[in-house]
C-alpha cells in the first residue's frame, strides 16, 4: 500500500471538474456511504498535507527575512502606462547585459501605490522626500534563463558593490512623483543585505485562497536569489501597502495583509499550495543600531547540493553573542567566509565604521586605493581596516 499522495487519474479528474467543485473540497471514503465529499477548512487541508506529504530533504521553511538596506542606483525605469510592464536601458555601466540575448530591456512591476513609510523609516529606506508613489520592480524578462557562467559574471559585479546590477538581478523599489497623469521617476533603490534598513514581521502562514487573485495579474515571478532557491522557494510576489485581496473561494472575506507591504514566498507554482508558503510584512520602524560582523551580498548562482544542507537562510550577520566555538569548521561552511571580491582567499578584514566583513587583506587594499575606500556592501566610506582571523 502506498502512503504518499498520488495524482488523480485523468478520467477521474475530468469527472470531478465537471461537477464544478470548489478548490477547498475534500473527497474521501466512508464505509457506510462510499465516496463522499465536503468543503473543508483550508488551514486543515494544509496541515494534513504537511503531515502526510514526503517533503524533499532540501526544502526548508523560511524562518526570517532581512533586515535589508536600500541603496540608490543609476538604473532608469520607465513605466509603460496602461500596462504592468516597465522599460529600462542597458547603457553605461550596464552595457555588458546587452551581450546576453536572453535578457530583455523590459520587465514586470507591481501596481503603483502611495508611499506609506514616514519619519525615520522613510529616511533609512532612502525614499526621496518628494516621492508620492512607488512600485516593486521585478528583474527583467529572461534573466532566469541565463546559464551559470553568465550569472557568475553578474555575481561578481554584485559582490563588488555594483548597485545597478544588484537592482536588475534581484529587483527593487522605484519611486515617483505623481501629479495628475504625469509620472516623474525619482529614484530606483536596490535591496542589499545590511545591518539596518527595512525590517520585517513574520513569518506568517500564507492563505492560499488569496493566491489566485494575485496570480491572475501575473504578480508571482521566479525567484532569483540563490539562497531562497536552495531552500526550495520558487516564486515570490510583493504585496502593496493596504492592498485588498479577494478570495477564490466563496465565504472568505476580502483581506488586507499588510499596512506597509509584504513579500510572499511560494514553494510550488501559484496553482498549487504548499505547507511552507509564507509571507513577511514590512515593519513601521527600522533597525538602526544592530551591528553585525558579516554581511555577504545576494547571489544568482546556487551552491552545489553538498553545500546546502546546514547553511542558514538569508542570515545577515554573526552576532557578538556567538562564541568562537560556534563558527563553521567544515570545508563546506568555510566557503561562507571566502572573500566576496576575489572569491578565492579567506575574509581577513572588517571595514570600519560600517563593520562589514567581506574582503581579504589584498582586496581590501585594492578597494581602498581604487574605489575611494567605499565598502562594497553598503557603499559607505570606511576609515580603517581591522584584521580578523577565521
From TrEMBL:
SUPFAM superfamilies assigned: RING/U-box (SSF57850)
Family matches, as Pfam families: zf-C3HC4_3
Keywords assigned by UniProt, alphabetized: Metal-binding, Zinc, Zinc-finger
Domain RING-type, residue spans: 339-379
Recorded GO MF terms: zinc ion binding
PANTHER family per the UniProt record, alphabetical: CASPASE REGULATOR, RING FINGER DOMAIN-CONTAINING (PTHR14879), RING-TYPE DOMAIN-CONTAINING PROTEIN (PTHR14879:SF5)
Entry protein name: RING-type domain-containing protein
